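Section 3.1: Structural characterization of target chains.
Under the original work plan, the team committed to producing a structural model for every single-chain target entering the pipeline before any wet-lab resources were allocated. The record below documents one such target. The sequence was received from the expression subgroup and is listed exactly as submitted; it comprises 227 residues.
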Amino acid sequence: MPETILIVDDEQRIIDLAQMYLEQEGYVVESSTDGAEAYTKIRQNPPGLIVLDLMLPGMDGLEICRRVRAESDVPIIMLTARSDDIDKIVGLELGADDYLTKPFNPRELVARVKAILRRGNMVDKRQHDHAGVITIGNLSIDPERRSVKVDGQPIDLRMKEFDLLVTLARDPGLVFSREKLLEVVWGYDFAGETRTVDVHIAHLRHKLDGMTATIETVWGVGYKLEG
């Protein structure tokens, strides 16, 4: 059954363009030009992925992102103005999976949608195939149950935070470049925005405060988990 993509943007021309390209790839596309209406749609019929503009009437995109993340891990791609770097950072901190700046190439949007959805399916399969609990110091990760504990205490991680931690923990000591983490965790097979990785690493360090293992920065290269 094809995935449903919800496009939320107050510019109908952007919705029409994105919808045309996504439907050509076999996706079912729904849309909304109003933030409050979009949030109601999300709650009534959760889509497979949300393409979400930040500047919206009724309820802005950041508030929608915050509310959605309190309830589910549905992937979110933000749409931002080219100069709104602070909005990109805030959106990622609220749990968005990725962002595109306007104006954007609709082919890139399709590629990112495919990558995120494909990655979700690959992660589910790989974690089922490698379901053993990973233990590094006082850190315990159960991939099949998607649970993390530090000193026996459960830690609440978002979907991409969990996937990122599992990737690092499966090969402790191995240095992953930001580009490799984008490829493995987000499914990108093209150059992406490495800031996404940095923000998620910062979240992990904060949430996993107290674990004996450390997520270390290898300057000029990327990150590794040391036990």
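The first strand starts at residue 4 and ends at 8.
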